Amino acid sequence: MDTKPHELNLSGLACPQPVLACRAFLEQEQVHALTVCVDNEAASVNVRRFLEQRGFQVVTEKEGTLWRLDAAGMDAARQNGALTPQRAEKKILVFITTETLGIGDDGLGAKLMATFLATLPEMGDALWRVILLNGGVKLAAAPGDALQALRKLESSGVAVLVCGTCLAHYGLHPEKAVGETSNMLDIVTSLSLADLVIRP
Questions:
Q1: Which CATH number describes the domain made up of 6-72?
Q2: Which of 3, 7, 22, 177 is the most buried (most CB within 10 A)?
Q3: What's domain 92-198's superfamily in CATH?
């Protein structure tokens, strides 16, 4: 294993390019230590989680306009994929792209969405991930029954992934109250790993 320090300057790259660049580097180099520099908070969160999933311990520091991620201690049993689910053999993913359920009255749609989320635990251990994309990310930021239902899902072990690009678009990064800020690589990988995708 190469023990020399390596540094990747990925500033200027939009999501999910920083994560893809890290993955491409690690596919070619087996390293003990790695420093990654990015120029936005969403990228720092996504790269950190990716490196941790690969067995690294990561320390993040803000230096001026850059985020510096120092990663070390890679697990000898390197993971080959970006995500390794630890739940039931059958994996159900719920893919939510709007804050309301159905078309018609938005007030009714909001109530239906909250009820839908609150009922998801009936799927049992097969319920694996909930992904919030586009307008769906508002569910992770707006106080109410839907947010409480998402929190209960997360506390039960269901992964809630919230699109970082979408949060930035709606200006909701500070308000996000549940889930992990995610990226398109995580989302596409999750969709490919799921046995069943439900899109309400």
A1: 3.30.110.40
A2: 22
A3: DsrEFH-like (3.40.1260.10)
Per-residue confidence in pLDDT tens, the chain, 200 aa? 444 568 999 999 877 788 888 888 888 888 888 899 999 887 888 888 888 878 889 999 988 889 999 998 654 334 434 344 344 468 999 999 999 999 999 999 999 999 999 999 999 989 999 999 999 999 999 999 999 999 999 999 999 999 999 999 999 999 999 999 998 888 988 898 899 999 99
DSSP the chain: -B-S-EEEE-TTPPTTHHHHHHHHHHHH--BSEEEEEESSHHHHHHHHHHHHHTT-EEEEEEETTEEEEEEE---SS--SSS----S-SS-EEEEE-SSSSSSS-HHHHHHHHHHHHHHGGGGGGGEEEEEE-GGGGGGGTS-SHHHHHHHHHHHTT-EEEEEHHHHHHHT-TTT--SSEEE-HHHHHHHHHH-SEEE--
